[in-house]
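Write out the 3D structure for:
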Amino acid sequence: MAPDPRVANFLTRNASFTASYTPAPSMADIIKKREPFIVIVCCTDGRGDPRAFFNLQENEAVVQANCGGRVTPDVLRTLHVLDLLSNDGVGTVIVCHHTDCGMINVSDDEMIEIGKKKWGAKKGKVEGMWFGAFEKGKAVRENVKGEMEVVRRDRWLGKRVLGLEVLGFVLDVETGKAEEVKL
């Protein structure tokens, strides 16, 4: 298989990036900072990248992305690590989904069928896999609320003495506007 030519383009752009690169603060300096982390859980879809639509500055927030912006066990693990490593822990978790997300247009059962066809001999391993698709037809705002509740119910984060702010947003990919979702 030939290398994807887009990767060579990434490396060319990286050379330009390094020409004016200023090193970021060390992890030790980031952890020592005197303000709690803001963590944004979002989808991997580039149309819903909070670094762009919130115009985030470097190290202003931790962005944790996965297909659908789900609060998975690995997202919770990341929140736990950040909460323990920083002096002030995680202060705010933002769950941010977007309209026209692929994960609201397919079910886990459909993903399993696609996997059986695509992966052939491995199809027995596909049965019972969880892909994190949302219930088809369910409103994006309701999905955000559900993921906010996962954070709030977490046995560690949900019981912190200092409390935890959990916010939700839906980005409209047609207008670029992020609207807050209230529980």
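The radius of gyration is 19 Å.
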